[in-house]
Write a structure and sequence with these properties.
Blueprint lengths: L1 E7 L5 E8 L4 E5 L4 H11 L2 E7 L4 H13 L3 E4 L12
Parallel strand pairs: 3-4, 4-5
Antiparallel strand pairs: 1-2, 2-3
C-alpha cells in the first residue's frame, strides 16, 4: 500500500495524495496541483497513474486535471460523482 502526501508549494498550501498498490504498480492521485511534482513521485515510487480524483471544483485543481487528462490516458473522477455503497438492509 502506498499513501504518499505531496505538498505543492503555492499560496494555496495544499497537499495532493498519491494512493497506490506496489504489487500492481498502479496509483491514483487525489487533488493534484502540479503535474511535474506528481510525475516525480510516480517515478520515485515506480508506479503508473491510472486515475485522478478531484475533491473540489476550484479552478486551479480543475485546470490541472484537464492538463493531466491531455498528457496522460488516465480517467478523472470529480469527487461528487463518487457515491458511497448502498446500505445493506436485513
Amino acid at each position: 500500500m502506498i499513501f504518499e502526501p505531496i505538498y505543492f508549494e503555492s499560496s494555496y498550501r495544499n497537499f495532493g495524495y498519491l494512493i497506490g498498490n506496489r504489487s500492481s504498480g498502479e496509483a491514483i492521485i487525489v487533488d493534484p496541483f502540479r503535474a511535474d511534482e506528481v510525475e516525480a513521485a510516480l517515478e520515485r515510487l515506480k508506479v503508473r497513474l491510472i486515475g485522478i480524483v478531484t475533491p473540489t471544483a476550484i479552478g486551479t485543481t480543475l485546470a490541472e486535471t484537464m492538463l493531466w487528462s491531455k498528457r496522460t490516458t488516465v480517467e478523472s473522477w470529480p469527487m461528487k460523482t463518487l457515491k458511497p455503497p448502498a446500505k445493506q438492509t436485513s
